[in-house]
Write a structure and sequence with these properties.
801 residues; alpha+beta; TATA-Binding Protein; Nuclear Transport Factor 2, Chain: A; Elastase, domain 1; seven-stranded mixed β-sheet; 41 strands; globular; disordered N terminus; Peptidase_M4; zinc; signal; hydrolase; metalloprotease
């Protein structure tokens, strides 16, 4: 043990960083970019609002030496319109080194939800958009600014880029087509050419045409090309053909029976779904067949008897509906563009084609070769993966290259698994269609990326020019971060999906890197659940565990004094902190709700850190000062309702800006309610009959429970006409569901819940399967849950019910 290493706390001598002692000097465009010390002086000016100093946080773009994420109060003005948002950027132009926000920033999108607004601005240079550079101003519901994030390039205005093109748009298109070796007979779905300012390499700017082509030739093409608008040289080619080389055990496409939403017209039935809310905006879900050709979209699939035998088409149509349902019901998103766009799918592309892709306007599926792959439309997570690429294109627009491209792939993997929503999720991508004779195969694993040769930590990041910079390889790192988050205590798939969706649609920009995704998901968790919530702790820890962190500081700062201690520390929860300088000290606060044994453990330190615990009067309760990086432990008997303070300090100035220590306090808490799960299955007849006495009931009872839940693993009824009501023990209808829905839970207060099916006199469907039930209680109830299953003969008019 080291002697006298930690002295008794003296609040009066605690070090406090006085931001007011720093001054800020505005930087003009003609000056060189400031040093990091000068940047911190600018940040001191940014922190001028006294009541928000503790919450201000800044993350730096080290390449451009400006902030890329600032959270806190940047303005005292109320922001309701884009003009107000521009005024905020004007107020903070010294911080971002913007000469004139009104001249340089162009509004291109505005999002409003229950948490506030997000104003998205694109940087321009002499009226020409700058490729990938965006700033987003965020407000809460009162109009107060909560953060600004994104990428702005202050160097550009010093480079004198000539924005008058020599090359025409038509010439740029010709150069692009020739570069991609497209034939004269190629069929184009998209061919666009717009001017942009492009940074081909650091500080090397070009006026360029951004050419986007989606074409069908011998092979499909979907790509962005950056072509110099003066000499016609190709600066970059970014393939956006987001394919799914999916892997899995495979049980065959549509060995089960699915009910479909079909359009009937002129004596024929068409594979066109008009039942979704998108139809009010002109959208629908359509499924075509190319009949093994390369011509898209092919022919809309039809039938004379409404019996569908094309397995690939049935899955493509059905799963596209489930993906739509998820985004609409969980996130309020109306199709991939949030404007009710038609979701179009084509099956039987080419012959034995081992892939699937989103081409910029529609989904395309190959049939596979039957040996290595089954038909690609046969996997829900594959369909969801590809359609999420479309959502990403319409929101963050993540450039399909390097880290932004890896994030693009990762978000598709994440939502593919969330939408598939398997019981006991194994977090495997594409495991249902790959290598039918090999069990356990998958394309990727979110839980263990290394199983399929993906890195799960930044220390193993693969630097390569192949695969657009390894977008399908390095996606393992953000995938693992998501897995760590979604499996953290108290985090559900629903919560995790909310955080990741908000980050994707409101915070990420085309050039976002992994650190930006970390900042975005952290801020999204703050927006949704509060700055001191377990969700924020979980998301920070998730990224820390894969080596993605804010290397300039500690996620729990400012916590350098007892008065500013991070709180609340939650029992038995791991916190990843940093001692970032020789004089840095970290403080944490916790309060046991009942008396009993307390253990505070710190380990996984790269350097020699020490641990101490104090009471609210600054009296030392216990300390641990082991040599080297051995674990440190303090144990004592805590008092109910008493506050205790944990102090972490580096011995003899030990510190690291990048290495983390893990801290966990275990202490008595009031017994909390928990969910307990039971595997009890309830099924309607498959398919259910017409006029089934107009009611069919399943009831789950768990006497003594506070709440009960039913999990529907499969739900298919005739849209609108047949429906299922969820009732409580008093026979009060709480929810009504109809149509085809992805797996979902229904929760009812009390110890009883019933599902009641109503069917009319024509058209039936699969019905439903309840595969799991659950109850909510402080402790487990030993009696087994009771099921009743009975047809009900009493007809109740649903209008009056």
């Amino acid at each position: 043990m080291k002697e006298n290493q930690i002295s008794t706390l003296s609040i009066a001598s605690a070090l406090v960083l006085s931001m007011a002692a720093l001054s800020s000097v505005p930087v003009s465009a003609a000056q060189t970019l400031p040093s990091k010390a000068a940047e911190m002086q600018d940040f001191a000016n940014f922190s001028r609002y006294e009541n928000s100093k503790k919450n201000d946080k800044i993350s730096w773009n080290t390449e451009k030496n400006i902030p890329n994420f600032v959270s806190g109060r940047l303005s005292s003005r109320e922001v309701r319109t884009s003009t107000d948002a521009i005024s905020v950027l004007e107020e903070n132009r010294d911080l971002f080194q913007i000469e004139s926000a009104r001249m340089e920033m162009m509004l291109f999108d505005q999002i409003t939800d229950q948490h506030g607004k997000a104003f998205k601005f694109r940087q321009t240079h002499r009226g020409v958009p700058v490729f990938g550079n965006e700033l987003i101003v965020h407000t809460n519901t009162t109009g107060a600014v909560t953060s600004v994030n994104g990428y702005y390039d202050p160097l550009l205005k010093t480079k004198g880029v000539n924005v008058k093109p020599t090359l025409s748009k038509a010439d740029a298109l010709s150069v692009a087509k020739k570069s991609l070796k497209l034939s004269e007979t190629a069929v184009f779905d998209v061919q666009e050419s717009t001017l942009t300012v492009y940074e081909a390499s650091p500080s090397n700017y070009h006026l360029a045409y951004l050419v986007t082509l989606s074409a069908f030739d011998d092979t499909p093409v979907y790509a962005d090309l950056l072509i110099d608008a003066h000499d016609g040289s190709i600066l970059n080619t970014i393939s956006k053909l987001q394919t799914a080389s999916v892997i899995g055990t495979g049980i065959g496409v549509l060995d089960d029976t699915k009910s479909l939403n079909i359009e009937s017209a002129t004596g024929l039935y068409f594979m066109s779904d008009l039942s979704k809310p998108m139809f009010a905006m002109g959208g629908k879900i359509e499924t075509y067949s190319t009949a093994h050709s390369l011509s898209l979209p092919g022919t809309l699939i039809s039938s004379t008897d409404n019996i569908w035998t094309d397995k690939s088409a049935v899955d493509a149509h059905f799963y596209a509906g489930l993906v739509y349902d998820y985004y609409y019901s969980v996130h309020g998103r109306n199709s991939f563009d949030n404007k009710g766009a038609t979701i179009k799918s084509s099956v039987h592309y080419s012959t034995n084609y081992n892939n699937a892709f989103w081409n910029g306007t529609q989904m395309v599926y190959g049939d596979g070769d039957g040996t290595n792959y089954l038909a690609f439309s046969g996997a829900l997570d594959v369909v969801a993966h590809e359609l999420t690429h479309a959502v990403t294109a319409k929101t963050a627009g993540l450039i399909y290259q390097d880290q932004p491209g890896s994030l693009n792939e990762s978000f598709s993997d994440v939502f593919g698994e969330l939408i598939e929503n398997k019981p006991n999720n194994n977090w495997l991508i594409g495991d249902s269609i790959y290598t039918p004779t090999i069990a356990g195969d998958a394309m990727r694993s979110l839980a263990n990326p290394s199983l399929f040769d993906q890195p799960d930590h930044m220390s193993n990041y693969v630097y390569t020019s192949a695969d657009n910079g390894g977008v399908h390889t390095n996606s393992g790192i953000p995938n693992k971060a998501f897995y760590n988050f979604v499996t953290a205590p108290g985090i559900t798939q629903h919560k995790a999906g909310k955080v990741w969706y908000r980050a994707l649609t409101q915070y990420l920009t085309p050039k976002s890197l992994f650190i930006d995704a970390r900042n975005a998901t952290r801020q999204a968790a703050i927006d949704l659940y509060g700055a001191s919530s377990p969700e924020v702790t979980a998301v920070v820890n998730a990224w820390e565990s894969v080596g993605v962190n804010d290397s300039l500081g500690d996620p729990f700062e400012p916590n350098n004094t007892l008065e500013t201690a991070y709180e609340p520390v939650i029992s038995d929860t791991t916190y990843n902190g940093r001692i970032t300088s020789a004089d840095d000290v970290d403080w944490f606060k916790f309060t046991p709700s009942t008396a009993g044994s307390v253990t505070v453990l710190m380990n996984n330190m790269a350097f020699d850190y020490d641990l101490a615990v104090y009471d609210a009067n600054s009296n030392l309760i216990g300390q641990s000062t082991n040599r080297g990086n051995a674990p440190e432990t303090v144990m004592f008997n805590g008092l109910a309702g008493a506050s205790y303070y944990i102090k972490v300090v580096g011995y003899n100035g030990a510190h690291s800006a990048t290495s983390v220590y893990t801290l966990k306090a275990t202490f008595p808490t009031t017994t909390t309610n928990k969910w307990f799960y039971e595997t009890l299955q309830m099924d309607t007849p498959h398919p259910y009959p017409v006029n089934y006495n107009n009611r069919y009931q399943h009831t789950y009872r768990k006497p003594g429970a506070q709440k009960v839940g039913l999990h529907f693993s499969r739900f298919e009824t005739e849209q609108t006409y047949d429906y299922v009501q969820i009732r409580d023990k008093n026979d009060l209808t709480l929810y009504t569901y109809s149509g085809t829905l992805a797996g979902f839970w229904v929760v009812v207060d009390g110890d009883e819940a019933s599902a009641v099916l109503h069917s009319d006199g024509s058209v039936t469907a699969y019905g439903y399967t309840i595969d799991q039930v659950a109850y909510y209680n402080p402790s487990a109830i030993n009696t087994t849950g009771m099921l009743t299953e009975e047809p009900r003969t009493t007809f109740v008019d649903p209008i009056e019910d």
